[in-house]
Amino acid sequence: MILDLADFTFLQQMKLVNPRSAWIMINFLQDSFPMRLREIHIINTPFFFDALFACFSPFLKEKFRKRIKVHGKSLSSLFSCVEPKYIPQDWGGMGPSYNNKAIKQTFIEYRGVIMILDLADFTFLQQMKLVNPRSAWIMINFLQDSFPMRLREIHIINTPFFFDALFACFSPFLKEKFRKRIKVHGKSLSSLFSCVEPKYIPQDWGGMGPSYNNKAMFTAIVQYEDKIREWRNYGITT
């Protein structure tokens, strides 16, 4: 994983790296992320990041701490860790360009976004990791306290049969304002349409919006298919 803080506004940077938010994010990544993270490379960090990371470092699991590389403004040190062919062109590499328009549109920071979390394509193992009590609690804290933009609504669809019971256990402990933003639809997409106008919902879920397209990731997967097959034996670097 390469985490680039360059396009984050100062407000977003402060939200990401203040002690509480940073601690929630670290716990989410080291204990709850639904795939193995071989390495995390953090680039274009603000001037105070090294000092903050030094405070947290002794409390991280040793195995996880060794996977985190802080490069500051130096992309040359990133190239010493990751082959250029796996680094997007945006950072001087040879890989497909990475484009996240949303993070560059600062008005989204205060207007907010609507998130649709579809669990249909998660394997049973990934679902269990996402919704077991510890992982779910870390993820919820991450979303309500540390997410670097405003979440207006979170719609969760195609949930496993036990999700409602698990959510009912956590619901009383959530902040009221955040709890009201979470809508669990189970397998019912019709209830999703009652909350979000069809023109804003991707065609993949029966809406009128543009089809959800993760073309850059798909292109990279096809391009490096042989390498990914190799990664399956020992995890991945994303």
Automatic annotation (TrEMBL):
Q: Which Pfam families match?
A: CRAL_TRIO
Q: Which InterPro entries match?
A: CRAL-TRIO_dom, CRAL-TRIO_dom_sf
Q: Name one GO molecular function term.
A: phosphatidylinositol bisphosphate binding
Gene name of this polypeptide:
LOC103512896
For this protein, the record's PROSITE patterns field holds: CRAL_TRIO
Gene Ontology cellular component list:
membrane
Protein name as it appears in the record: Clavesin-2-like
The CRAL-TRIO domain, residue ranges: 1-99, 101-213
Query: What is the source species?
Result: Diaphorina citri
